[in-house]
Specification:
Length: about 475
Amino acid sequence: MPPAIEQSTPAQELASLVGSLENAPGPRYLALARRVQELLSTGRLAAGGRLPAERELAAALGLSRVTVASAYRELRESGHATTRHGSGTVTELPGGTALGPAWGVHSTDPRVLDLAHAALEAAPEMTGAYREALVALPAFAAGHGYSGDGLPELRQALADRYTARGLPTDPDQVLVTAGTGDATDVVLAALLQPGDRVLVEHPTYPGILGAVEQHGGRCLPVPVDAADPDALIGAAQLAARQSSPRLAFLMPDFSNPTGARVTAAGRRRLAATLWQQGVLTVVDEVSSELYLDEGPLPPFAAGLPDAATVTVGGLSKSVWGGLRIGWVRADAALVAQLGEVLRRRQLSVGVVDQLAAVTLVRDLDAVLQGRRATLRERRDLLRAELARQLPTWTVPRPAGGLSLWCTLPPGLSSAALVAAAAPLGLLLAEGRAFGTGHAFDDHLRLPFTRPADQLYRAVELLVQAEEAVRGGADRRTGARALSVV
């Protein structure tokens, strides 16, 4: 029995998802079909939904009806749509299974190679940390199990680590959360009012773009360039002076996705500039200690009043994404305010996870030593393989972090590449996910977090996907393309 048909996607809504096709390679109808295929394969357009009428979508996109009709025909022939009596054109997924969206949802299919998410496998030290946690658990089991702001032992361990890194911290300046994203969301929920502007790097971590919007804020993008990371200082100063943002969200160490790292002198100037402009800076340090070629730099908040900066961090990148332990480090009064917000939505983070995190935070230097060695090896392997098999791609060498920010050759669309890779079993995050509007379709983020055999396989699939984008579809429909406007 065919799946039930969901409600129609309005023409304007689909046109917004599709975006501009002006610079897409190949005929317009084929570009439109590829974009719809990508939206389906990444989960942003639901399978089983009714597509808009050809005339309505043509008007919304500024295309001819013939072009839209040809795109729909291409979708039917590729298995991404079908015509049902009385229902019009309905979307489908070939084989009936989605590979999962490129952002926000993970595929559990073992046949799928997931490079949409920059995350390592679990650190070997994690198992031992949980053994120690279970040994310590009976001492806590007699109580109610809730630890509103976090276990005192974990808050102390985190405060000690910040102090050792050059940022003196007391335990009452630390709030434990369920991951770094949870920490950021608590900060936004407490401090952001509808309409407030938030200065963000551009490109940036996609999660912050959605979180700001969800809390009623407006992103104020400023350009970040891995080749000149300190250029962010002047751009941020200008944006702060002209637009008066309430907050700034920054990743000064190995920004996601560019890998840019603001220099020690640069971060002092940037921090002082934002503080003088009355902007509270939220610093994401989730990757700050994943330096591969250089040594550590002082925390962004070092040397500033505690009220000038909120720092968020977590163990998802250094230890494992499945360990949902994060934290906020800020002025004690603000931490108390954030704790009230957190407790309104969850009473506590799991005690066993926190006990394991105590051990991991205290032994984090040893954990990071192994992680850096692994990442360094995989980064160099992936860059070498890309240079060998995709020599027209520009692939800078980041000094740390988890991923490469690749510039694609002219005429190659990140969205089209992601769409072509999905049916091959390769899950990617397209460049536009990291920016506002339709920026960065000429970029692709490639994490170097998977084992060597998977990275070799990923490059082979990228080669196949590029060949499909550049020639396969055009050759298949070349005869028809001559007669389509």
